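Action item from last week, closing it out:
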Amino acid sequence: MLPMYLRNTYEKEDTDRIFFWHIPKASGSTMKNILNFCFGLSRAEQLQAEPSMQFAKKNILNMDTTSPKGLAVSYANNLVNANKVDLIVSNYFLSGSALFTDQHHGRTFTILRHPVELAISLFYYRRQATWERSYQPAWTKLTFHDFVSSQHYMDNWMVRQLTGTSPWVDLKASHLERAKRMLKEKIFVGIMSEMDETLRQLKAHFGWEEKESYCAYNYLHSAPTNQNKHPAVPKGGSTWKIVVEKEKYDMGLYYYALELFAEQANKKYPAPKGEGGSSISWTDKQR
């Protein structure tokens, strides 16, 4: 079952809107700034106490698409058909895709991060991010090893999002195959560890043009203001292996995404001579 109003990956119409499936702690804030300031794309983000169909600031409509309640309000207000935003950003893949309509289909992209690195970053971020709904003060009493060893650890978030599978349901290989199909047929793939190449491909795929030269490059390579610093977890160590085992379906999806990313670079949008492009030898590097 594929979302009715999301275009297949390489299809497009002039009436389409963009859907950024935002995987937490995978360059989402940087990407939103680039889309807003470098490409001039408007999006929904609730910046005031109450949602409204008014702009809270330039290119930011005061509506929430990042929570179930916010998505319900956005749906009730027919957000996409209101013709006020170019872009929908949401962590919720299936619920976010429900905002699109027969008048304005969605063209989807995402940026993936290695699942173990993602789990580490989320753990340390959520136990200090007092400003987030996902803030978890109780986690300050846990080590990362304790956290991932716990029976309460929620695994394989990406596969669950793409297949609509609840956290308490045991996943099977068939869930991974369904998630792979969704990724291939509906989502243009970016990779966090290859952001320069990701931006090059996204510009080619969506036809984006920067308002100022080197705008996106400067956002990617300036000193990060939202970097989530945390202790390192030894790659290949006991804790790392626990996460790999618990995230085995998301790991499979991530390696498949690397293949799609390479295919995009080699077959769909090869870099012009002299521009370098993607060094498609990362599958081993990312393991």
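Closing note: Residues 248-268 form the longest helix (21 residues).
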